[in-house]
Amino acid sequence: xxxxxxxxxxxxxxxxxxxxxxxxxxxxxxxxxxxxxxxxxxxxxxxxxxxxxxxxxxxxxxxxxxxxxxxxxxxxxxxxxxxxxxxxxxxxxxxxxxxxxxxxxxxxxxxxxxxxxxxxxxxxxxxxxxxxxxxxxxxxxxxxxxxxxxxxxxxxxxxxxxxxxxxxxxxxxxxxxxxxxxxxxxxxxxxxxxxxxxxxxxxxxxxxxxxxxxxxxxxxxxxxxxxxxxxxxxxxxxxxxxxxxxxxxxxxxxxxxxxxxxxxxxxxxxxxxxxxxxxxxxxxxxxxxxxxxxxxxxxxxxxx
Length: 304
Ligand code: G1P
Hints:
disordered C terminus, 12 helices, binds 1-O-phosphono-alpha-D-glucopyranose, Spore Coat Polysaccharide Biosynthesis Protein SpsA, Chain A, alpha/beta, two-stranded antiparallel sheet, 2 domains, globular
């Protein structure tokens, strides 16, 4: 059994990057192929050994609770019609993990949202998964992070190597050393100005494994970038005590809260889908030819 049993998913954000789709639907419920984005994140957590999950929400997020709850009316209907595959899928969602929901109350920042989990977490290490980031690695990155936390006792973050103009949208790390894809972190700054970025290593995908002492650091954190309580600032304060390690991600990562990257996720995940993949590949090949995409392609709508 993994030594990290609990995860926290901050999902109180209003999804303003994906309007108008997110006017009345939580961004976490936008479908990618055949399931809402947040289901990929829960599946990833479960694959890494997580059993118990707290989702931090806002008043508009009720569909998240409904999705992970039983739906007896739907189950009875599917059963009466003999639709066993659908019935199994619907039941499985409600039993993937023990789910809990609490509201953030005020939009005071990611650090504040994670701080809401203090009583739930108690005195054990826990994971945080930001639901905009979709991975399809079966929990590989999170499992490596959990092992690193167990062997070092540090705060463990996920990181990637990004172009300088992109990395400044993230927390940026200054490495002391890098060994076996783990960075020993000297400093960490939330969304620095371009001239202040100390490296190309950014905190994305948004995955963290924290010792419970992070809650004292959050309590001591004052508003930072954007006037919000930033988790990055609380992490920076932990460098002097537990230390901070960054585990490098080399797998695909999609920002499902961003329209173009959501399209990329949809296409790539559909191509790898057991049931839909082969048919979708044919469809995509036709679309590519029809629109003249690719080196040899000529748009069929143009006269040659
Ligand atoms: C948050 C974190 C940031 C991190 C990013 C990853 O920023 O504050 O440090 O790099 O998630 O996606 P946000 O994207 O919520 O502005």
